[in-house]
Amino acid sequence: MSANQGTRAYDAVIVGAGHNGLVAAAYLARAGRSVLVLERLGHTGGAAVSSRPFAGVEARLSRYSYLVSLLPPKIVADLGLDFRLRSRTISSYTPVERAGRPTGLLVGGGEERTRAAFARLTGGEREYAAWQRFYGMTGRVAERVFPTLTEPLPSRDELRRRVDDETAWRTLFEEPVGAAVEEHFEDDLVRGVVLTDALIGTFADAHDPSLAQNRCFLYHVIGGGTGAWDVPVGGMGALTDALAAAARTAGAEIVTGHEAVRIDGDADGAEVTYRTADGEGVVAARHVLVNASPHELAVLTGAAAPEPAEGAQLKVNMLLTRLPRLRDPDVDPREAFAGTFHIAEGYGQLATAHAQAAAGRLPAAPPSEIYCHSLTDPTILGPELAGRGYQTLTLFGLHTPARLFDHDNDAVREELLESTLAQLDAHLAEPLADCLATDADGRPCIEAKTPLDLERDLRLPGGNIFHRALSWPYSQPGTGRWGVETAHPRVLLCGAGAVRGGGVSGVPGHNAAMAVLEHDRNHQD
Q1: Nearest of 193, 312, 293, 192 to residue 502 by alpha carbon
Q2: pLDDT tens column, 131-176
Q3: Closest Cα partner for 416 from 358, 460, 487, 365?
Q4: Which of 73, 130, 370, 437 is the most exposed place for a label (fewest CB within 10 A)?
């Protein structure tokens, strides 16, 4: 499509300045392409932002996305990002009551300490040995699969050969992950800890025949080639600020308050119509990269929109004056909350919660996981708060699909928040409410976001944090060479809904940029 006279023209126009759009912009600008990024909101970053949600309080929280695992070091190095990740010394703590006394499972702090924690919980060595075997297997798969995420999509057979372990392939790619969990582990709590990685942001049962839970599990255990989940120093906004700086330094133009409303394209190029507070405008591009959901892509191009893939999570941000004391006397709260603190996530509890939600009811014991960013990275707190011992808590709830909030989002949010915190309080020696800080107006420093809130705030269809159901990291009919191609020859999808999308990875942005550069090399147009 040739640009009309007077219409600004670019090599690439990117719709959306979330982290994937910024990755694509930085790569393309560094390759000498003229790049314009159009962002609807008044800031860059999308869901990967830091903000101060509590009035008058100097706490910069990762408001939506909050941990990093799938970001390839290659992207950080290629773009020269001024950005650091910090590992957590504790992987997880899961409290439980056994034989009438509070106890739990602390994973981390060294092999011997973890072995002792398993023995304390289960009374023997079996579960820890099974844990070592199981995660040894996923670790080997991670080493082989993770590097493929920034390569052209392998075929299913190619990826299977790369995995080179038929048992691992069957366990992760062919059979419901619940079968493997039950085969390897006997303890209900241990089974639940393993299963949670299959359910974060995905509403599925352990034995769902669609294997949606397997795809979620796979992406959670392959990150970085190890499966480790790291804390972004300075909060998630530090990453997107670094990406925006890298893109601008390379020559990309980023404009906020510019909402793309239509894309018209043909085999030669495309035009993007956008809206600002002052009216509408049009820009031409040889390539358009859409860092938004497949649903939004369909709206922009006039295609039939796909049915939204329902989100199923509760996100809660909190600021505390101190960490609460635990009922388990053998665990320091500073360790328990430094990793992932599992609540109501025994294997049986997760199955019950899913069944209740699938039947249209809020789970009676809502499962969730919590972590304290400020223990690993105190820079997100102002000096005064840090000096007084304040801490942040991030809670991510499972098995609360968007449909449960349809009739009264505000009322159901409050009901769910109350019952979720009650599950936490059951394992505390003091109520969490006693530890909550207050803002400048005297209100408790706590905010909760349902799937409908995320749909409204971020245009996530159905509140789905992955934009749609996660895909296998191999080619299938219609996926294209890089997993970012669409029905429009000059329009690419570079958001979380691309193949190998989801999470804070930058992978779809990288792959869309590679597809553009490869196209240009092949066509020299």
Answers
A1: 293
A2: 999 999 999 999 999 999 999 999 999 999 999 999 999 999 999 9
A3: 365
A4: 73
